[in-house]
Design a protein that fits this description.
By secondary structure, the chain is α+β, with helices and mostly antiparallel strands. It contains ten helices and twelve strands. The strands form four sheets. Strands 10-9-8-11 form a four-stranded mixed beta sheet. β5 and β6 form a beta hairpin. α1 packs antiparallel against α5 and α1 packs parallel to α6. It starts with a helix and ends in a 6-residue tail after the last strand. The model has no long low-confidence stretch (mean pLDDT about 95).
Length: about 400
Amino acid sequence: MQHADIIDRWQQVRQRSLAIAAPLSAEDCMAQSMPDASPIKWHLAHTTWFFETFILEQFEEHFQPFHHDFRVLFNSYYNGIGEKHPRPQRGLLTRPPLDMVLAYRQQVDVRILRCCDSIHDPYFFQLLELGLQHEQQHQELMLTDVKHLLSCNPLNPALYASPADLLPSVATCTTLAWQNYDACLCEIGHQGTGFSFDNESPRHRQFLEPFQLATRLISNAEYLAFVNDGGYRKPALWLAEGWDWVRQHDLQHPLYWHTDPQGWQEFTLYGLQALKLQHPVSHLSYFEASAYAVWADARLPTEAEWEYAASQHETEGQLSQLFDSCWQWTSSSYSPYPGFVPATGAVGEYNGKFMVNQYVLRGASAFTPAGHSRNSYRNFFPATARWQLTGLRLARSQQDPEE
């Protein structure tokens, strides 16, 4: 990548984080709605902390931290770096103020760009790209976290006017069809020279039995039929742990759905809106996606099935809504690929240590920054997570036509 390209990409990514936060007040940026979410101010600081800690500390001549306490305050989960402020208490950090966090970002921006002019070590630029990809992940988290925060407000405040330039429109669901795939020995995992996270490698072989994949995501209208049919009251549809979770929280519909005498509504970043029946259903947990699949006489795809179908789509174009609407749950547990080896040092904690008690999601969402995802991208969350922009695409097993 040329020097001018690096500077341009740096400025685009860093400015987008500020653009997401721009409509928010300082009070908005400080609040934390639940332990799984983080305040916007923390996201802005942590993404900057990543560059300071993993790049400037290693490469900058005469390195001095912006503030020595930030090393602990804005460390997320890197035990190799040292102590961390407890995640559930990030919303209690009224100090440093937002203005200081913004000054922190500005100073680190200047220092990183100065290093770009003087350093030629390829590893510096590898870490820089990792940091930018990391910030893009946090940009999606910023949107989902602030959406959850605003949904807790009885005023149902909107973050953006509709339509917003910052977010693309969600693709409308078309007629659902099924695409057939024969049994095969395929390869999945990252290939080529472009960026990938460590959990996407190494590329390896997978045998697939014949299967079918839905050509699009499940819509709000289709999921509403599941709700109206008593889907949340039928234990036979649910995994045992999922049924306990549904009863414990008295769940009856997806996270941001509301009903009143005028009909169903959904909380969005544009405030409370009438439920758009032809949009993909979103903010589903793995348990909800799995229960719907059982109700629909189908199943969730494995991540190998999803990636193989997505790679075939590049040449044959049978599938829609792969990357523009919702992340898609798979039935695959998040585990290392054969031969996976974490990177050395604290940066090796990025993905590998989370490979337990989580499920893989594939694709991307309307909140995902443009160009950030790819066929081999492996997102992951625990089975109860539903504040993320997660939906579902159905799969079915089929008899091998040669039998």
